[in-house]
Amino acid sequence: MSDYLTPASTEEVIQILETYRGEARVIAGGTDVMPDIRRGRIKPRCLVDVTRIPGLDRIEVTEDFVEVGAAVTFAALRDCAYLNRRVHALTDAARSVGAAAIQNAATWVGNLVQAMPAADGAVIALALGAEARVVDSRGAAWRPVESLFEGPGVSAVDPTRQLITHVRFPRPARRWGSAWARVGRRPALVLPILNCAVILCLDADGSSPAQSGEVGKNAGCITQARIALGPVAPRPFRARQAETFLKGNRPTEETLAQAARLAQLEANPRSSVMRASREYRLTVILSLVGDALTVAAERARSNAPDSPQGWDEGIDRRATERSPTNTGPQGIQRPMEHRE
Amino acid sequence: MKISFTVNHQPVIVDVDPAQPLLDVLRDELGLTGTKQGCDYEGECGACTVLLDGRPVRSCLTPVGKVAGRRVLTVEGLGHPEDLHPLQTAFIETGAVQCGYCTPGILMAAKALLDREPDPTEEQINEAMAGNLCRCTGYTRIRAAVQLAAARMRGEHVPSPRPSGKPVVGGDATRTDSVEKVTGQAKYVEDIAMPGMLHAGVLRSPYHHALVLSLDTGAAAQLPGVVRIVTAADIPGKNGLGDYSQDEPVLTPEGETVKMAGAPIALVVAESPEEARAGAAAIEVEYQPLPHTFEVEDTLREDAFPIYEGGNVLTTDRVAHGDLEAAFAQSDVIIRTRYRTAYLEHAALERETALGYIDEEGRVTVTGGTHEPHWQQGYIASTLAVDPSQVRFITPPTGGSFGGKQDPWPLVATGLMTYLVRRPVRLTYSREESFEASPKRHPYSVDYRIGATQDGRLTGIAVRINANTGGYDGHGQYIANYAVTASGGPYLWQAVDARAQSVYTNGPKGGQFRGFGTPQSTFALECTLDELIQKLGEDPLEFRLKNALPQSAISFLGYPVAESLGYVEVLETIRPRFREFQEEARAFNAAAAAASPHTRALRKGVGLSGMWYRFGKSGSLRVEAHAELAEDGHFVVYCSAPDYGQGTNTVMNQLAAEALGVPREWVEVVNADTALTPDSGIQGASRATYWVGNAVCRAARNLKHEILATAAELLDHPPSDLAFDGSRPAKRARSPHLHGGYGQGTIRVAPRSAPGRSVSLREVAQEFERMGKSRRVIGLFDLSPSFPEEGRPEYVPLFVTGAQAAEVMVDLHTGEVRVTRVVAAHDVGRAINPPDAKGQIEGAVVMGLGAALMEEYIPDASTGLGDYYVPTIQSMPEIEVHLVEVPSFHGPHGAKGLGEAAILPTTPAIINAVSRVTGSRIRTLPATPERVLRAIRRARASGGGEI
């Protein structure tokens, strides 16, 4: 017989974890913890449910960050109006996780702690340059999400001692675009053969490569690029050479294609009997990354201040959204204008 | 730990381990068995979906501790038989319920969707349902049902798509058992708990091939809760599954070899499932591993390790006639191909489950899904060395089969345990166990050599088929015959030499699976023909028409077929849509090729396939059913045509009602219980409607004759003027939608000319008793006079035909394929229940799509629904079904067999469509993104292809 506790604060969580000396474990949605218990991979004496801690169910947009609490489900991400306007890659990634009934329970933070190399939540977190607020008995610290993955299924966060209370990523700037791409053996309810998240940020001046020649030297150039891929390495992977190559370049067709080729060279996927061979994965990375970069670049351009939509138009900067867990049913996402 | 929450608006308090899945608490503690478990608690099937505070969640992944203080809604809280939710009504009316096992979870997902989105788009429905697997319906009717319910809930008046159910035959008959299924009331075996019930665990071989050196059950027997351990030594009778050519042992004894992983060695009966599993794990076995292989090519080699003493070939079959070399000599084109298919798993949402107990008459009674209750009765009796009369087999509501539940093993094992412990015992496979130990579709390797003349006439056909039957027969002995039979199709050939062999390997045992050995041959034939057609520059449809087998011509088998052939009719039916698909694809591809190169590289392809399918496999040409005038004056039909979701209960009810000339509500169907019903033969080969239906019709007609004759005497009125009086009986049906319950009021016989004078059926029944006349009469359908013993082929050549066209979208960069549209035309002879017939075809199309693109069981790798990909609603194409009615010579009202045949053309139609896009043929199933991309690159390398 185990215990199931639903503490009301982070401090209480830490106290409970200390009391149980490694035999208690943090649980959020439970969609990964439950199979792990059933298969005997973990044998917690106490489950510490963090989804009812006030505030952790919020998606908060501050001046500098988008901050997502540990109780925020993939459904909440998928349905968040702000994210649907500004961070398409994140809502699309959330929509890729299992199926609706999984998305209603599974949390982004939980997905990160599982540390699987193909986890949709991990790949998108890398592309967003996300950080996690890790709390334990010694205090709280923001750590880059990327630093938390130690190997396949091995996280630096120990859920018997620690918890992640929030994930945050830099608030999308002007001329910022993101994209999500995924290949699988069937269209839904399946782990990916490959998944890919990219973000691109263009230079503050100028709008499109076609007009850029007339403006300043760096106009329309890529100032920031992040390309994340899974499962192409033991951990969720960033194609750093491709990212470096992109910086300072204009997002032309050739440049983006070259970046995709670099990502292909950097990646080191394995063959999987059930999903696909290394060769297939390497081949497809090229078009997957290429397509994602193209979409992200288009979105970055259309987010320019002189574009019809303006940037952040209609967004209340203090706007926060609650996870639907506590607020009841919300509408599922209608097809969006920017979806491919 | 005490946890309180509300379930279906009622507060409950349970005292359980809070880490226990909500699913188990609902089912075991609260008795709410409407919520199902299908995937070993991994969240992969959706059958356990419930609403938590209004949102759908997987109850198998939800620790019950999490729901404290919250609201849970299950299917039982959605609506009641007397007060159905609009979704439940819509599911019944639309025909969205077949086996019903996925239905509760799907209803809950649908409810949550409609609560927040009253007018959902198709895309929204697909997204909301993507996590709920259904193996029967093909999802088409599920989506339609959600749309129908949504419209009604918005206040729109939408009449039932099945307004009257009239005429009874050929009308839109609502299923007899849908109300139970949509309300969670239907009791599948796993939902039945009996006092003192024990649970079974199975010790299975971890080796693919090994000698069992020793077996020590001592330690296991001492474990808490273990009641009995059963090994081969405990089997009183025959340790082999009856009429399997090389007996597959029920349990492998010491000193013998196990020939596949998962082969059972011992059974453990214990107080709980956990203790049973622990007991099985504690049995000590010493194995000597032997060489193993999953490939037929390996076991056929001269120096191959013998899996059986008699050699690795189980059976062979051959059809040969005409001068093949002469036929090839006149051919302008000869094509050679080799096609390969994969191991397929049925993946019915309900896993193998059986419950055994001793009934009130002391019989060993087993209830579980099967296709042939009387055969199981015989197998169990021979294992126990008792007379079959001491064994009873009852077929319960069954959560899908597709042939999978034809494996007698779980049923025989349950009978054996029950006999030994004399207490109720339930055996339930885990999904992983089901994957490892249940029979699979036989993988084939098929080599063709086919000739044709320049003007597109087929000449000679040579085919060699190796069917992989795995470690055991599993009825693979018959596969060679089916493989050969299907390999020539409904075409006219000058000369034939077709050979097939069923070959042992150490893979999972092959077994029955929708189409039994014919989809693989059909796939290879129809794809080879398509290659030939491309080579000749012919049109796929005209070519098939040109070569279609005339009704009385010598068929591929060497003699004419014995049923009406509707192949030309189905091809003509499909023609307009096929042409439309072709036109649209040409236009789409031209536009796509002209578009900028960095837009997604999508191309459309269109493929066609025909098929013939031999239905109604003979065994006996004489089938029996009974009709009874019950003591209380209603009609009862007795037959053995198990309903595992395909709707035989409803068809028999319709046919009997039609023959009696009474409403369906008056006729009760008692189906597939060896203590009550006659042996109507095996329900294989899509024969239920044709054979059993015929016998039911005859029984009902005979009963009507007997009743009217007696009533005529009682009324002193000529029987020709008598009729059943339909105005008086009150329905006892539990809801307006349940048409299966029988009327409880008084049914009367009255003269048409003088309705005032009448006699009740109760009085007629009493008169029967008084006269010593049996109230139960027999109906026989006997084709043996039509096919006299001398000269009768081994299988009576009853064939049904169909054709399908598929439209696909191929991503040239990733190799991903989406099937966008399928048009299916099938000659059904006569549709007894048209919406259900269409539902069978839609389900078959989606199952055939799975085989074409994603399904493959890989020994040592596949473990369950998380890595064996069956289509979700997101894979569902737009399906258009045409029921072509070319009346049969012998079937009831002209009906023919359908359920299996419909899967045959789907896979080749899809693969032909994909291959025409890639430009290089895909000859190995499934066409995974990787295989498709390889074909695209192959074609590019050789400069070929349409792209």
Q: What is this structure, in a nutshell?
A:
The complex is a heterodimer of chains A (340) and B (947). Chain A is 33% helix and 23% strand. Chain A contains 13 helices and 15 strands.
List key phrases describing it:
heterodimer, A: 340 residues, alpha+beta, six-stranded antiparallel β-sheet, four-stranded antiparallel β-sheet, 13 helices, 15 strands, disordered C terminus, B: 947 residues, seven-stranded mixed β-sheet, five-stranded mixed β-sheet, 23 helices, globular
Describe the structure.
The complex is a heterodimer of chains A (340) and B (947). Chain A has 340 residues and is of the alpha+beta class. Chain A has a 6-stranded antiparallel beta sheet with strand order 7-6-10-5-4-15, sandwiched between helices. In chain A, strands 11-12-13-14 form a 4-stranded antiparallel beta sheet, sandwiched between helices. Chain A is 33% helix and 23% strand. Chain A contains 13 helices and 15 strands. The C terminus of chain A is likely disordered. In chain A, strand 6 and strand 7 form a beta hairpin. Chain B is α+β, with helices and mostly antiparallel strands and 947 residues long. In chain B, the strands form 7 sheets. In chain B, strands 8-10-6-17-14-15-16 form a 7-stranded mixed beta sheet. In chain B, helix 15 runs parallel beside helix 22. The relative contact order of chain B is 0.11. Chains A and B meet through helix 2, helix 6 and helix 12 of A and strand 4, helix 3, helix 4 and helix 23 of B.
